[in-house]
Design brief:
alpha+beta, YacF-like, 8 helices, 8 strands
Length: about 250
């Protein structure tokens, strides 16, 4: 099954982008080739670009605090496993403390590393990190695997509090939804959203055997999904077939 996610606001969109980048960073950093470690470093710079938004850290801290108050409301509820609740709240407290203790924006400590910033300034230029442009970086790529991994881990460590916080918030958000099976008649699906409840994330699970691609749009009032199909001309065309998929709305 293929899972698609659609954010209803810019804050969740940013969280999903960060999660995607942190997953990519972990994947590239775990490999052995110098080229993979080059893309791991490029991913660190991408994370720094996203994290440079002035209100991102504040948004994450506010969301952690809000979720903590919500979870505290489940204290002494007989249908809630209190030990699990305690662990989640403790993790939330740890994320809040470590993120709030970071000076400035996430990754700001890396901006004080002139060598890293010299690479960052050229990595977006096509071929800008060739050995004749950045000989010191070229030499770093010839270090041992363990040395490169240790350096990447040290640089990524400054971003770890943000990574853990975003992953926890997205997990709690995803767990808030209840999946439902729905039908797209002639490739089209629309649903009015319940009033008095603010949804932040849509999750759509589709069978890859159908070879359909969803185009999703939505706002606080309604969700609209159009199923598309890639044709021989390498373009997407609307599907006119009925199809079922699983839809989850998360608040």
């Amino acid at each position: 099954m293929i899972l698609y996610e659609y954010p209803f606001n810019e804050r969740i969109r940013t969280y999903l982008r960060l999660e995607h980048l942190f997953v990519r960073l972990a994947e590239f950093a775990s490999r052995e080739q110098a080229l993979d470690h080059h893309f791991a470093l490029a991913t660190i710079f991408e994370i720094m670009d996203v994290a440079a938004r002035a209100d991102l850290k504040s948004d994450v801290l506010k969301d952690l605090d809000r979720q903590r108050h919500v979870l505290e409301g489940y204290r002494n509820n007989p249908v809630i496993a209190q030990d699990v609740l305690d662990r989640v709240i403790a993790q939330m407290d740890r994320c809040f403390e470590t993120l709030s203790s970071l000076p400035g924006k996430a990754g700001q400590a890396l901006t004080e590393n002139d060598w890293l910033m010299s690479i960052r300034s050229r990595i977006g230029i096509p071929g800008g990190t060739c050995e004749f442009d950045l000989p010191a970086y070229y030499a770093w790529q010839h270090k041992t695997i363990l040395q490169r991994r240790a350096d990447l881990a040290r640089w990524a460590e400054t971003l770890a509090p943000l990574a853990e916080s975003v992953q926890l918030l997205l997990k709690l958000l995803r767990d808030s939804g209840m999946p439902q099976k729905v039908m797209a008649n002639a490739g089209q699906f629309q649903q009015n959203l319940p009033q008095g409840r603010t949804f932040q994330l849509l999750r759509l699970t589709l069978d890859p055997a159908l070879e359909l691609i969803p185009e999703i749009s939505g706002n606080r009032l309604m969700v609209s999904i159009r199923l598309m199909q890639m044709q021989a001309d390498d373009r997407l065309h609307p599907s006119v077939a009925d199809a079922t998929f699983e839809l989850t709305l998360c608040s």
